[in-house]
Write a structure and sequence with these properties.
The protein is mostly beta strands. It has two domains: 120 residues, no CATH class; 246 residues, no CATH class. The chain is built from three helices and 28 strands. Strands 1, 4, 5, 26, 27 and 28 form a six-stranded antiparallel β-sheet that branches. Strands 2-3-21-20-19-18 form a six-stranded mixed β-sheet, with no helix packed on it.
């Protein structure tokens, strides 16, 4: 879990290896997915169910990620999103800082910073999403359905787009639901996903109950038509009733969604088991992909580290009663899916586990047809971007709150 601090941004680039395009061989074509006995595929009322029991390629034959970064950007605060430009420059979104958008040259030099806090053109309240469109147009989406701003890489404001909140509400509000507060995930065509919130739902009145609020996902297209992806189970929480109980659950399962690919798909999971639903952007369920996994128990050390961090944020809560509640709960496992991502090639990356001792994360990659291709281990706590031949990842120093953004070479060629 990242800790953030509010401070001026101090930047230092450390080139570890040359990233010139002339220094690396052209990638070989990826092999076609071979047919193996490690999968069961069946049809259920026109929906394809893909049950993965083993990967297409073993660890020794699958893609590799260089253990050392090509470039390290250090001394950063509050980095939220990172996206590359076509020429190797990197754009970062830092919503807690006075300047929200930072652009760095491949050498590490800060070449542009823009997007101050404010209500004027090109200014933001608290931007949540960052995109780079064709032609290196930088798009920043503000919270609370605020303006969507389009910049060139120098920071020149090209145009602004206003979301028609009245049309959005008219498209999504019913007797059972209302729209959430912000855009959840933007798509390259300008459409976007939002959360849908049940209108009359309330958490359990009895304190100490673990619950998951229903969470809906809806896509809003350019005509403000709504395309629903159904209802899912939100983040696990503890009901407090009238007590002073903390609401936190250790390593909670939660519904998540991500979109990507060409043509794009929308992926949704409840996170508690290894199952992802793949939809068309119009809301048609095409495929359900699953993977056979054993649950991963969290250790006592992981639990104590998590509790220490959360208690530091909530010192005035009744932790003794919370301990009794947690002692009655049987789940001592990490959620099956921690996070997921769609890379630039349209493949789905699922974060299976975090190895805190080694400082690595394990990701399983799935093809467009739901087949489990293989698994890779990545340095750092997570990823910001996965391109054709590189990964932008991140590290955080929990003692200082400082972050780094690191670029690692990704070799997709495999070895037969």
């Amino acid at each position: 879990m990242l800790r953030y601090a509010t401070c001026a941004c101090l930047v230092a680039w450390i080139p570890a290896l040359s990233v010139s395009g002339c220094d690396r061989p052209a990638p070989e074509p990826r092999p076609a997915e071979p047919q193996t006995v490690g999968v069961t595929i069946r049809d259920s009322a026109g929906i394809e169910i893909v049950e993965n029991h083993a990967p297409v390629w073993s660890d020794g034959d699958f893609w590799t990620v260089d253990p050392e970064p090509e470039i390290v950007l250090g001394g950063l605060w509050n980095v939220f999103r990172v996206v590359p430009l076509s020429d190797g420059r990197v754009v970062m979104l830092t919503p807690d800082e006075d300047t929200k958008v930072l652009v760095f040259e491949p050498s590490g030099r800060l070449s542009a910073s823009f997007g101050r806090t404010g209500q004027g053109p090109g200014e933001f309240n608290y931007p949540l999403h960052l995109q780079v469109l064709q032609g290196d147009t930088i798009v920043v989406w503000d919270r609370m359905f605020g303006p969507v701003s389009y910049f060139d890489p120098s920071g020149k404001l090209l145009r602004e787009r206003r979301i028609d909140f009245g049309a959005l509400v008219a498209a999504t509000r019913t007797g059972d639901q209302r729209p959430g507060e912000s855009v959840h995930w933007p798509l390259p065509d300008g459409s976007f996903l939002i959360d849908a919130v049940p209108s009359d739902w309330q958490p359990p009145a009895e304190p100490g109950q673990i619950y998951r609020r229903p969470s809906g996902y809806v896509r809003i297209d350019s005509a403000y038509s709504a395309h629903s992806f159904g209802w899912w189970d939100g983040r696990e929480r503890v009901s407090s009733g009238r007590e002073n109980l903390p609401s936190h659950v250790p390593f909670p399962a939660q519904a998540m969604t991500v979109a990507g690919g060409d043509p794009p798909s929308v992926y949704v999971t409840n996170g508690d088991r290894y199952e992802v639903h793949q939809f068309s952007v119009s809301g048609v369920l095409r495929r359900i992909l699953r993977r056979t996994v054993d649950p991963i128990a969290f250790t006592d050390d992981e639990y104590e580290e998590w509790k220490e961090t959360v208690q530091a944020w909530n010192p005035h809560r009744d932790w003794s009663q919370w301990e009794r509640v947690m002692g009655e709960q049987s789940r001592r496992y990490h959620p099956a899916i921690r996070n997921f991502w769609v890379d630039s090639e349209g493949l789905l990356w699922i974060n299976d586990r975090l190895n805190r001792q080694l400082g690595t994360t394990e990701w399983s990659i799935f093809g467009a047809q739901g087949r489990w291709l293989g698994t890779v281990s990545l340095p750092g706590a997570g990823i910001y971007w996965v391109g054709e031949d590189f990964i932008l990842g991140g590290q955080v120093d929990f003692d200082t709150g400082l972050q780094t953004v690191e670029r690692y070479r990704l070799d997709r060629r495999g070895r037969p």
